[in-house]
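Same chain as my last thread, 121 residues:
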Amino acid sequence: MTCVAEDGLSVVFSSHVITELERVATYLVVLSHGHVQVAATVDSLLDSHLALTGPAADAGRLAGQVPVITAQQAGRQARVLARTDATPPGWAARPVTMEELVLGYLREPSARLLPRLEVAR
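reply #2:
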């Protein structure tokens, strides 16, 4: 892989083992049911998402503040995967792992993060 990187070549990996991809991928495309869910650099994806923990009673309002990818509630606490780089007031945040990111987008087919394409004229 070092030789490939030094030569500036691209290699396409297809794997269900996310830890394998985490070591070598610089760009990630997640496919689900024949649709592209995510397409972006790994660094930009990890930098633009947070794992949030906060009061379950506020989970519905959080979706009005930041794009929520997935939300799980257990008792009075909610765990949320959100597309944001800022911690909303009243919530605790930590960086997401690539596995959390991939599984979150696979669990929620309506959540998509695709690059903006420019039209050539």
